[in-house]
Protein 1
Amino acid sequence: MPTRMYRSFQGLLLTGLFVFFASKAVNGQLTWYINSRFVPLTLFGILFLAVLAQTIFTEVKRLRAHDEEHVHEHEHATPANLWFMIIPLLIGVLIPARPLNSSAFDTKGLNTSAPLVSADTSSLIFETESEKRNILDWLKLFNYEDDVTQFVGQKASVIGFVYFDEALGADQFYVSRFVVSCCAADGFAIAIPAQWPDAASLKKDSWVIVKGSISSVEIDGNRMPLITATSVESVDVPDQPYLFP
Amino acid sequence: MQTMATDRLPRRFIIPVLLFVLILVAASMFPDGFFTWFWDRLNVFATIFLGIFVEAIPYLLLGTFASGLVEEFVDRDQMSRWISRRPAAAAISGAFMGMIFPVCECGVVPLTRRLFHKGLPLSAGISFLLAAPVLNPIVIISTAAAFGWDRMLLWRVGLSLLIAIITGMIFSVEPNAGKILKPIISLPTEHDHSHGSIHKTFMEKVRGALLVTVDEFFDMGRYLIMGSVLAAGLQTFVSQSVLLTLGSGPVFSVLIMLLLAVLLSICSTVDAFVALGFVGTFSFGSVLSFLVFGPMVDIKSVLMYLQVFNKKSVFYIVTIPFMISLLSGLLLNYLLP
């Protein structure tokens, strides 16, 4: 492939990547893929892609002037390198973006028990208002505190997506979230059970905000918080679908 | 060159097209539920793939940019003045060089290749390749952020250094680096036209560095993409919970953590946060082996190594760290249960 053509393709692909990532950044979907902690660094990377694209286009212009003297073949121009860069663009554009949901449970597992995150921050969570605690907070409290009767009757308000499991009764469902440390690849699901007479009317994977009071139950030998719901409302996918430990 | 490429293109397309037709035929025979299942899977795959890719991009750019800067601003004489030719000294200085280059395992490969090109001795380059992803300041800070300035950090850095230096010294038995290294095919030819890099202005050098960055980015990005596709595919279709339940007992837990380090293919700058999630389920030794082996070997880095070294060398670069990580993990599991 002639150098100029190769360079032009490089420039186009860099621009493509820049536009794709920049659009993700603008519509706030970067956190569907990575922990919000890494967003600033990624933005920096996206800007750098633009700088590189600009450099390449300037180079193409320079080559155009140069080529009038003699056309030369670019030895390093292996077109295969170019084709590969199309893959992320194709995957990103053709497959509709969606945060991880219960479809990933088969392989990633639903972690309803176990020491979720090693850092014991339960004393901090203790002081936050009960209605501001998220699913992870509640699970941590029930994991680390010996006496959970103190939480029984507290008001809870949590957001998550709906998941049904055989371990639960017909009027129960799980409110689940994925916990992501760095990117979607390391995400694992957590969930707490909720009781709601109309549970069967809910749609799997739909996002809901569940309000009610906490009690303690045992599921498969694990002590878990259960929300006896007074209201279950549908909501949009939150800006940050994952929880970050 | 050009005729070869155009001759080969149609033939290369035959297999994908046939495969596509085969898939269509096969698809018409699948039960109804298959497609929703498959579509769901594909969504999960896309999210995980883009997760790995998006997260790795800034680090890959950083590494390739470092490589570009080395190409333009470091010349061969400087390199030989900095680095000793004696094997042990070269291996040790190579390993500690990691402290000044903030690159992770995606970025370190193009940079090492460029340093070899500038005359870095083989043993120094190998130990740099293995140590830099752990010894770099970003990784040390992120490990400390996850585990505190504590024994996990000390062990991680110490063990990585040890493995890097041992592997580097083993490679010093081969005096002819040319036998082990593959040539860099992606050298911008423009450089040959100008008369050395000495007469270039600063801005010309920066421009040259950015062009090298782009070439390296495309060259290495290819393997990052292949690796991410594989890792995401495995994660979409192979159950991790099965892996984790298998991982009990002092021997199996280390093996499972090593396997997981390879499969997850997460960047060394962030893997400490992931490892944090395993503390409690897994012993100190097992988590440590994850943190030491992961930055040296995973799916994408092995694919990149294959572009720089011959197969036999890649075999050693993978197995020596594997053996030492495994042994140290086992030993620590017995000493510090």
Protein 2
Amino acid sequence: MENLMVRIHNIENDEITDREMNKKELEEYTNNQNLLITNKEKEKSALAAKQSAQAKLAALGLTEEEVAAIVGN
Amino acid sequence: MSKQTYTTGQVLTSAQMTQLQANDYNQTVSAKVASYTLVASDAGTRITMSNASATTITVNTSLFTAGDTLIITNIGAGVCTITAGTATVSTGGSLALAQYDSGTLYFTSTGVSIWNGVNPGDITGVTAGTGLTGGGTSGTVSLAIDSTVATLTGTQTLTNKTLTSPALTTPTISTLTTNGDLVYGTGSGALSRLGIGSSAQILTVASGIPSWATPSAGGGMTLLSTTNLTGAQTISITGISQSYKALTLYIENFSSTVDSSMSMFFNNDTTLTNYLEYMMRNRAPSTSADFVDQTSFLTGYGLDATTSYGFSYVTIPNYTSTNYKIYQVWSVHTGESLEFAQTYNWTAYNGTSAISEINIKSGTGNWDSGTVKIYGVN
């Protein structure tokens, strides 16, 4: 993976400085990555559960409108 | 001695001879003090008139013969006028004799005479020209400056003159030296110069006199910076002016090197508890919209560089406050049908410092495209 960088643009004098992330920033970045992955998995899990519920309700004979009324689209 | 008619054999006495001689050297004078009508014996004599008021001397016909002459002298202050009675009196000058004027009345026939009075010169009248009033053809003539003069030709210099309601055509004032200069009153009737201001300056009043001033910024947006989102995972924009009432950000066409998202912080403050964020996201058409209590400060989703680009519009009113700073973010992205197409974040930042730095972070990898424009808003 490429080196993660921080670019600082000082708009008072229009100077641009590039540096690599320091240790603390890398830790934050990693934590955020983990959080993103967790959130995404939760999203996928919630979506799968919703789709399963919709399928089961449809199997019980509910129409699409009735299913939507219960669990949404 | 008056003119005599002698007959043949008449003897001329010595007294008569003496009188004739006296008349030849010292003319016989007939002094008058009131208006008078000439008689035949006046021929060859001098008539004097002395009266403080106007008088006349009347000339009648059938009294004199051709060649008769008499002199008239006005001694008095009143004008004595030679007046044609039944005889004619012609003259090249005036028949009116002022005090001490004299003249000769010469008969060319018994009823025709010529008066040779004072030389009147060749002026027969004085006419008031432009700018003057008065004039006349007799007596004392007066001229005065016409108070209604409207035209003066040629260059004129007027000093300490009062002009009432003047109509000025293309006037020039020597104190106005530069194109665009203005004049204003000083309160004492005098004028002073106000030199032309600079471009876009407006006329205002300072210390009781007019002056030019640069208008304060207001009611508009000023572009403070343009920053490219490339080459780094975090783009920090520092040195943000504190002179505006609000900030507006346009973050356009942004993407990172891998499938990612965007989050935004202030003053490089990543303390999560300093941010209160709530997101509404639309996942249509695959999933209905929902609301998320954000913990990762996402302001955009699904920014795969190869297929998707994001666009965000951010407003931060009262960004110089040291208290809560409420802000909002609208975002859309294109390209990925299963990710969030639109998001709206309403958010507060509880940092105790004014916002002077904005940090825009890619969720994964470095930014590889995008532009951030920051506007100061008044």
